[in-house]
Design goal:
This protein is mostly helical. Helix content is 80%, strand content 1%. The chain is built from 21 helices and 2 strands. The chain has a two-stranded antiparallel ribbon with strand order 1-2. A hairpin with a 2-residue loop joins strand 1 and strand 2. The protein is globular. The two termini are 20 Å apart.
Length: 456
């Protein structure tokens, strides 16, 4: 494919990933407002994030398969249409329960973007795909810059409903550009049957565990019998899921890509990293409000340096992957992210750093930015390490990788909401949580050395 056309295609799929990234971060700054306007509690309002992540985790492995079998273009356009329509519905939601439903549908569209985009870019760039896919890590921070700042401005001056309506013009542009520009690509000559039973078992298992965590968080005085029942149901459904996936001809989750040693290490890495990163950054705007009394606009500014740092370091790291390989950037990134969490856990206020007197806004932004630097270093290597294990099934591998990271984010965010419900002082509770998350990242370092260190 000519370079000009390949770069134009990259721009289209990058816009889709940017829209999904904006929507994830734009909701984070609205948590305090949603608590008041929808008259709900933190456990339920956190579902506006975990519900989105949950449906993404279901959509990603299925979208990876459909991308190979139905065609990248068709799936991409369907995903854009679903995302746009559900954004309109979320903006019109009358209560938190309907908002959660529409966010779940929105996540289905958002979850289909990454596998289809990965397949489209792999087809367009061929042997140069490593750098192009690595640059995906620079797109999400751009959304991380735009999302919190646009969201903070909207929350401070308009209704929270407009944080969803901003997706509509982008979604319509994606549908039009996708129809006109994206190539049809090759369609695999295999059956297109979807593993509906597997998807149902997977959904039921995750929902049971999430509901159990939410129910527990809503009753801080103690765990009820029904909560234990939902935990047990979730565990049982996971067991049945594994049994079913081993026997079906076209499973939703290819267990060979899950249990084999290199894939197992990659999947464990993505699961834990997703739990820490999604949980951590989801609650930073809330922490800025309860610990420092910041407005929605200020809490959005706190995330901006993090996204800028992540964007720059992701771009640099992407071009150095062949030279540095995978393990070194992943370990360095984990250590830097852990340092950011440990410093945030100290609860510093208006401190002097390196001879400069920093106000609360600048101090918090600096500490969060450190985490963004670590993410920018680790993400391109982590993304490509999985793809190089089986390059002929790139979309399916990308779907599984994204699924494990999303499942980690869902469970991590719900677990953080549960832990926070036990804290009488929310600011101190979050600081303790930050330290625990930092320890988890350091414990992840040995897993990195189980991942092959050779780049293609």
């Amino acid at each position: 494919m000519p370079d000009r056309q390949a770069y134009f295609i990259f721009g289209i799929v990058a816009l889709a990933l940017l829209m999904a990234s904006i929507d994830a971060t734009i909701v984070a700054v609205s948590l305090p407002t949603l608590l008041v306007d929808l008259r709900t509690n933190l456990a339920w309002v956190s579902w506006t994030m975990t519900g989105y992540q949950f449906s993404q985790s279901i959509a990603m492995p299925m979208a990876g398969k459909l991308s190979d079998e139905w065609g990248r273009k068709r799936l991409f356009i369907i995903a854009a249409a679903v995302f746009t329509a559900s954004s309109i519905a979320a903006g019109l939601a009358p209560n938190v329960y309907w908002l959660i439903v529409f966010r779940v549908i929105q996540g289905l569209g958002g979850g289909a973007f990454l596998p289809s985009a990965t397949g489209i870019i792999s087809d367009a760039f061929g042997v140069r795909r490593t750098t192009a896919i690595g640059l995906f890590g620079s797109i999400f921070p751009i959304g991380g810059i735009l999302g919190p700042n646009i969201g903070g401005f909207i929350i401070d001056h308009f209704s929270w409903r407009w944080i969803f309506f901003v997706n509509v013009p982008i979604g319509l542009a994606l549908i039009l550009l996708g129809l006109l520009v994206l190539p049809k690509g090759n369609i695999a000559a295999v059956s297109r049957r979807i593993d509906a039973v597997g998807a149902g078992l997977f959904s039921g298992a995750i929902l049971s565990v999430l509901y159990a965590l939410t129910s527990w968080a809503n009753r801080p005085e103690g765990i009820e019998a029904m909560t234990l029942v939902f935990f047990a149901v979730g565990a049982a459904l996971f067991v049945v899921l594994v049994w079913h996936e081993r026997r079906t001809e076209q499973p939703m989750i290819d267990l060979a890509l899950v249990r084999a040693r290199p894939f197992l290490a990659v999947n464990v890495f993505n699961l834990v990293l997703g739990a820490v990163i999604f949980g951590f950054f989801s609650f930073i705007p809330y922490y800025a409000t309860v610990a420092y009394g910041m407005t929605a606009g200020q809490s959005g500014l706190v995330l901006t340096p993090r996204s800028l740092a992540m964007m720059i370091t992701s771009a640099v790291s992407s071009f150095l992957i062949i030279r540095l390989r995978y393990r070194l950037p992943m370990v360095i990134g984990l250590v830097i992210m852990a340092a950011s969490l440990f410093l945030l856990g100290q609860g510093y206020h208006s401190e002097s750093m390196l001879g400069f007197n920093l106000g609360d806004l600048a101090l918090l932004a600096t500490l969060v930015m450190l985490g963004g630097i670590g993410m920018g270093i680790a993400n391109p290597a982590a993304n490509n390490a999985a793809l190089d294990l089986l390059p002929d099934k790139i979309a399916a591998v990308a779907g599984l990788r994204g699924m494990f990271r999303s499942v980690g984010g869902v469970l991590g965010t719900a677990a953080l909401a549960l832990a926070l419900s036990r804290a009488s002082d929310k600011a101190q509770g979050l600081e303790t949580i930050f330290i625990v998350l930092g320890v988890l990242l350091l414990l992840l370092i040995p897993v990195v050395f189980l991942i092959p260190d050779k780049t293609r």
